[in-house]
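Proteins fold. Shown next:

***
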Amino acid sequence: MTAPRAHGLTPLTRRTAARIVEYSASSDMPVGARLVERALAEQLKVSRSPVRQALHLLGTMEWWPPPNGAAAPSLSPVRP
């Protein structure tokens, strides 16, 4: 029996989301640069499905818009 998944997210999706954030923070990616699912999958050495799910997760966390039109986030705090 496998452990229950919080909100249906797999550990791979959560790790991929964290790696996307780390990658965007550590690379020379300009704010607003387009994030390409296939390129991220190749860079992170995972399939496109966990990347797609991770981008969706990050979109729901307001890191940036969801996958259709995802762009690199500004890592500065959002002011209300």
